[in-house]
Amino acid sequence: MENENKVITKSNYHVRPFLYRDEVPDKVLEFEFDWLNPDEWDGFIKYRGRYYHTSEFIRFGYGGGRPDSFWDGYHGDSFFSATVIKILDDGESYIIGYQYC
Fold it and tell me: Which one of 7, 22, 53, 65 is at 20 to 30 Å from 34 when CA atoms are compared?
């Protein structure tokens, strides 16, 4: 029972710059991000072969997240795993990782 709340995080903690719309393939924008408004075309991320947009992440502290975490938000990948993000103060870069239990 001791390990029931253990969360494992995998990250190299490298700081990465956000991608802009022109750095994301048109096919990806057309099929995965057609719901975005043109003013939201900044803040793309590519991680583990998949593209994300910052609007897809839920802030910790809302909806049962862990507000004491280093990470700012998460994108649920499955019931037991999530991609986590830390947005740096400059607003132009981030740190990303993967959590599972």
Answer: 65
